[in-house]
Amino acid sequence: MVEHPSIHSQIDLRERTSGRKVQTLELFIDFISPYAYLAAEKVAELDPDAVVTPILLAALLNHNQQRGPAEIPDKRRYMFKHVSRMADEHGLRIQPPPAHPFNPLLPLRLASLRPDLLLPIFRRCWRDGQAIDTPASLLDLCDAATLEEASAAKQTLRQSTERALSLGIFGVPSLLVKGEIFWGFDSFAHIRRFLEGHDPVDPLLVEKWETLPASAHRLKT
Fold this sequence. Notes:
Blueprint lengths: L24 E5 L4 H13 L4 E4 L2 H7 L9 H17 L15 H9 L4 H10 L7 H4 L5 H9 L1 H13 L7 E4 L2 E4 L4 H8 L7 H8 L11
Parallel strand pairs: 1-2
Antiparallel strand pairs: 1-3, 3-4
Helix pairs in contact: 1-5, 4-7
C-alpha cells in the first residue's frame, strides 16, 4: 500500500489564493542521500505545505568539481554513524540500501512525475534497506506504464537541477526559505529561528567574508 505524505513536489513557488499564506519553504532532495531522507520525513514540521523538489546531486558535485561524501572512505564510515545518531534522535529508523552509491535517476524521475511516491521511495531505500534503482524494485509502487513514462521524463529533473544550481545550491538536502539557502538536515533549528525573525547572521560580516583575500593556496594534485 502506497503511503501518501502531506508534502507536495513542484518546481516553482507560487502564492496561495487570497486569504491564504504564501509558500515559504522548498526542499531539494536526491534519494542517494540519507540526510535528505531524514529531511523529507520531517519537513512538514517546518511547513505542512512545503514544496519538495527532486534534483540530481551528481550534477551539483560535477559542477563544483567535488567528490560525494560516500566516495571518501573515512567520511563514508563517519557519515553513516552520524546519520544513524540523527535518525535515532528524531525517532526514525535507518539502514543502508543494498548498494551505495547507486544510480538514482529512475526514482528521481518517477518522483518528479508522481510526487505522492516520494516518501514511499525514500522509506523503501533508507528505512527498509531495499533497492530503488531498477524498474523491478519500484513496480509494486506504480504500474509499468508509469515507470515507462518516468524513464522518459528527463526534462523536469534536468530543469529542477539547473534551477537549483542557479540558486547557488551545492548539496542535498537544501532548503530555500524566503530567498535564503539552508543546507543539511541539521539546519532545521536554524530555519525555525530564521522564520521567527531571530537569524543571528550579520549581512555586513557575510559581505566581508566573501571579499576576504586569500593568503595561502592549497596545492592541487
